[in-house]
Specification:
This protein is α+β, with helices and mostly antiparallel strands. It is built from 17 helices and 15 strands. Strands 2, 3, 4, 5, 6, 7, 8 and 9 form an eight-stranded antiparallel β-sheet that branches. A hairpin with a 5-residue loop joins strand 8 and strand 9. Helix 1 packs antiparallel against helix 2 and helix 12 packs antiparallel against helix 15. The longest helix has 36 residues.
Length: 527
């Protein structure tokens, strides 16, 4: 009787226990190095007041640790780097924009409170009672400076940057002296004459010769004096005092403000609640222009979609039964392949009142040309004309394909009923066409609602609205208005307010998208 022994087949890919332990140890070592670096970076950010970025990095660090330590999340290990970068590059800017919209972030308020105080700590002043010195500069081969100082009593000092002043007992120890008792040279240093010092005076005035709190600074070509810290911050009372004037400043919405209304820059970022949103709807300074911008934004997107759709549909219907329609469509699409950035600039040149081709044609035929850039009405016509050229080839192709999907039997039945061409278009072609292209129309509306390129490149939103309190033009839409507020304002950037408007625009787009989903279903049900 033979006996059989069952053996477990050897799996060459199965790791040995020692290999598993080595892999785990290596992973833990890498994770430990990552955690140490992340903790150091996060703590530095929190100390500097960069709470949003520090919070996001904390979440990413926790996510990486959970994925690498839990066996059940093994599949995510291959995606942990990509997901972390996605959160940092894509998700964080959105959350950061939301956070900014509830702050006063903008020119004059770009720093955290700690950073603002750090800058003010470096500010110094020269008291009138400070001891004055005459000075002579010396420079070494590397461009470093030392200064020979003499006070009113004739005492001499050798001053080096960020080092205590060195009392000079006997100047002759440094070698030959001039008539005023100043060395003609120092070891490794060359004496600078007055004419040589003149072009260096600004550079020398920024160098603190001596230790902090007792540093000597160059005031002019003849004098130097001991500078002192100008501002003193009291953490208990949260106040800032200007030692040179005795004025006390308290933080008011991120601005160091005195009782008489004077302020000290730089300010810092603080939360302002929903102030930016209420400003959007209630501020009389921007209410009028903003209302006009919002109305024009809706009209611009609507007219763009309507004109591009119907011109594209008309073109598709005109050439649908012609021989060689594929070649014709290809020729019509060639201009569409040129990047829109280039096309917009080409159209801007053609509408130029001096050398533009289109303006020249108007001048020849009608005796005058519209002011495409400085007249509000014609500027809007110009924007719509450019967007028409950019958008109709897209709908031409879409409508050409959709028209071929409409059964010809429907038109035959309509002919039997005596329907004319207009009746068939409005009662058969257009309703059936909207079933296919309706969602694309809504998507096109959403795209043109934020079509920054054509507005900015054509006329930068101009012409300007007269008397507007904020930088705004007649052809500006909300997204270009946000850009002007954030980057192009003569009164400084206002990132908090611009972020609030961006969120409002996002909410409008969400509503339009929900509208798309709702009525797309309606058209499908009707079909």
């Amino acid at each position: 009787m033979s006996s059989s022994v069952s053996t477990v087949p050897h799996d060459p890919e199965r790791q040995s226990p020692s290999a598993t332990i080595r892999g785990m140890a290596f992973r833990l070592l890498l994770l430990a190095v990552f955690d140490v670096g992340a903790i150091w970076l996060i703590s530095s950010m929190l100390q500097d007041g960069l709470f949003p970025l520090g919070g996001m990095l904390t979440l990413i660090t926790a996510f990486v640790n959970v994925v690498l330590l839990r066996e059940g999340m093994y599949p995510l290990r291959w995606m942990v780097i990509g997901l972390s970068l996605l959160a940092l590059i894509s998700v964080y800017p959105i959350l950061y924009t939301v956070w900014i919209s509830f702050t006063n972030y903008g020119d004059g308020h770009l720093l955290t409170k700690q950073q603002s105080l750090a800058q003010l700590d470096r500010a110094t002043y020269l008291p009138e009672t400070s001891g004055a010195y005459t000075w002579t500069a010396f420079r070494d081969a590397d461009g470093g400076f030392v200064v020979w100082l003499r006070d009113a009593d004739g005492n001499a000092f050798l001053a080096r940057p960020n080092e205590p002043l060195e009392d000079v007992v006997d100047p002759a120890d440094f070698g030959a002296l001039d008539a005023d008792g100043i060395p003609l040279a120092l070891p490794d240093y060359t004496r600078l004459g007055r004419l040589q010092t003149v072009p260096l005076i600004d550079q020398l005035s920024r160098i603190p010769f001596g230790v902090e709190g007792e540093a000597v600074r160059i005031r002019n070509l003849d004098n130097a004096a001991v500078s002192q810290p100008r501002y003193v911050f009291d953490d208990a009372t949260d106040t800032l005092t200007d030692v040179s004037t005795g004025v006390t400043y308290t933080p008011v919405q991120g601005t160091w403000t005195a009782e008489n209304g004077t302020t000290v820059p730089p300010g810092f970022v603080v939360g302002v609640g929903v102030q930016n949103f209420t400003r959007f709807f209630q501020s009389p300074a921007i209410g009028g222009p903003l209302l006009r911008v919002t109305i024009w934004n809706f009209v611009f997107a609507l007219l763009t979609v309507v004109t591009t759709f119907f011109l594209g549909l008309l073109t598709a219907m005109l050439f649908s039964d012609l021989w060689g329609k594929k070649l014709i469509f290809s020729l019509l699409i060639i201009p569409y392949t040129i990047p829109s950035l280039v096309t917009i600039l080409i159209w801007r040149g053609m509408l130029n009142p001096q050398v533009g081709v289109i303006s020249g044609i108007f001048q020849t035929v009608f005796g005058s040309s519209p002011n495409w850039f400085n007249d509000p009405t014609w500027a809007k016509v110009g924007v719509l004309l450019i967007n028409l050229w950019l958008g109709y080839p897209y709908f031409m192709l879409v409508c050409s394909g959709a028209l071929q999907g409409i059964p010809s039997d429907i038109y035959s039945a309509a002919d039997v009923d005596g329907a004319n061409g207009w009746t068939k278009f409005w009662q058969i072609t257009l309703p059936l066409l909207l079933v296919a292209v309706g969602p694309l129309l809504v998507a096109s509306y959403v795209f043109n609602f934020n079509n920054f390129n054509v507005i900015f490149l054509y006329n930068s939103g101009g012409p300007p609205m007269a008397g507007a309190a904020t930088p705004v033009g007649h052809t500006d839409i909300l997204i270009s208005y946000v850009y002007n507020l954030a980057f192009g304002g003569a009164r400084g950037a206002d990132f908090g307010f611009a972020s609030a408007i961006s969120i409002i625009i996002f909410a409008i787009v969400i509503v339009i998208t929900l509208f798309q989903f709702r009525y797309t279903n309606m058209w499908e049900e009707a079909d």
